[in-house]
Amino acid sequence: MVSLVLRGLRDLSKRAETFISVPRRHRHKKKWAATEPTFSATQLALQNFDMTYSVQFGELWPSIRVSLLSEQKYGALVNNFATWDHVSTELEQLNARDFVNEAMSRGERKPEGDQTAASPPDSWAYSPNLRCFTFARGDVSRFPPARLGSLGVMGYYLMDAASLLPVLALGLQPGDIVLDLCAAPGGKTLALLQTGCCRHLAANDQSTSRTARLQNVLHSYVPQEIRNNNQVRVTSWDGRKWGELEGDTYDRVLVDVPCTTDRHSLHEEENNIFKKSRKKERQMLPMLQVQLLAAGLLATKPGGHVVYSTCSLSHLQNEYVVQGAIELLANQYSIKVQVDDLTHFRKLFMDTFFFFPSCQVGELVIPNLMANFGPMYFCKLCRLT
Ligand SMILES: C[S@@+](CC[C@H](N)C(=O)[O-])C[C@H]1O[C@@H](n2cnc3c(N)ncnc32)[C@H](O)[C@@H]1O
């Protein structure tokens, strides 16, 4: 042992001697690389997803990955403030179908002897009057841009059809007072208004430039009399404060939080959260999401419902946030919150979307080449006390 150590020391001193015998002007510090490789934000996003989602989704990841990198599919949300029957006929002529109406009709055709279909739980109740057209599975046709109709508003709004699921799941009832906590640019706000259920809708987004986009959407799709009669209020406040501002107030609250917007992050450099300069902001997202969901729950009346949603596949931003907010409300406010079971709801929409089969809480639409919608995570919560 001692001889081994001695030999090691001898080798070291030999190398030191050789170094000393080289004249100083010929000595070089070895450089491994002149500059570190630089990656674009979209490349960094893909590296991050490959690392985390391959573990999270296992053998499903390669198929989700290729779908995320391919062109996404859209749905056409019919504007009920336009001459909607005319718009629906036009969309049918394109060979598109109203997936909401189809799912509801399927739900009403209860198979004989199927007890579960005969008595769905209350949490299954969906928001009414929504019509959204999509092309069939495997059909990658595109919708033409919407046009201004005879009533001075646009005929339909193009959006990821999976974005409608959180609004459907929120289960609006006529006369509801509704809060959309992170509302801009406004696709889901528009859908909430289409239900015809909102006695009052508060649409908020902290970013003033984005609330300007929301105002544009309202302007193009909602008639002036509805915009002007105080039915819709647009604000630019920090949603985290909502519990203090208007606690115990709303029947229904949508908390569609800022997230890693997975599809956007793989395709667009602009405003990409995987930019090196936004690393801290990205790491803080789950914390911000818990705070926003907690604020949404505090703003809800006891007995009211909240839907939490993201367009990310990350468990850290989805299920963990829901569990974190439930714990926070129990520990800090002694408020009980229950997760509603959406199994019936998922079954209704399985012909249009692919769902991840192993969510602990909530539902997750995963992108698939046959139906390239999502990602969209949503979880419905009921504030009990
Ligand atoms: C996923 S987007 C919302 C999309 C929108 N619900 C829709 O369907 O068009 C998240 C939004 O949260 C907003 N936001 C970020 N931090 C916020 C905060 N503290 N309070 C309120 N809104 C916030 C962002 O400006 C962004 O517009």
From TrEMBL:
Active-site residues from the entry? 311
- Spell out the GO cellular component terms annotated for this protein, sorted alphabetically and separated by semicolons: mitochondrial large ribosomal subunit
Q: Which UniProt keywords apply?
A: Methyltransferase, Mitochondrion, RNA-binding, rRNA processing, S-adenosyl-L-methionine, Transferase, Transit peptide
Swiss-Prot/TrEMBL catalytic activity: a cytidine in mRNA + S-adenosyl-L-methionine = a 5-methylcytidine in mRNA + S-adenosyl-L-homocysteine + H(+); a cytidine in rRNA + S-adenosyl-L-methionine = a 5-methylcytidine in rRNA + S-adenosyl-L-homocysteine + H(+)
Q: What GO molecular functions are on record for this protein?
A: RNA binding; RNA methyltransferase activity
Q: Which InterPro entries match?
A: MeTrfase_RsmB-F_NOP2_cat, MeTrfase_RsmB-F_NOP2_dom, RCMT, SAM-dependent_MTases_sf
The residues the record assigns to binding S-adenosyl-L-methionine are 182-188, 205, 238, 256
Q: What is this protein called?
A: 5-cytosine rRNA methyltransferase NSUN4
Q: Which GO terms describe its biological process?
A: rRNA methylation
| Domain SAM-dependent MTase RsmB/NOP-type, chain residue ranges per copy | 66-384
| Pfam families in the record | Methyltr_RsmB-F
Q: Which organism is it from?
A: Erinaceus europaeus (Western European hedgehog)
Q: Report the subcellular localization.
A: Mitochondrion
- To which protein family does this belong? Belongs to the class I-like SAM-binding methyltransferase superfamily. RsmB/NOP family.
Protein origin, superkingdom: Eukaryota
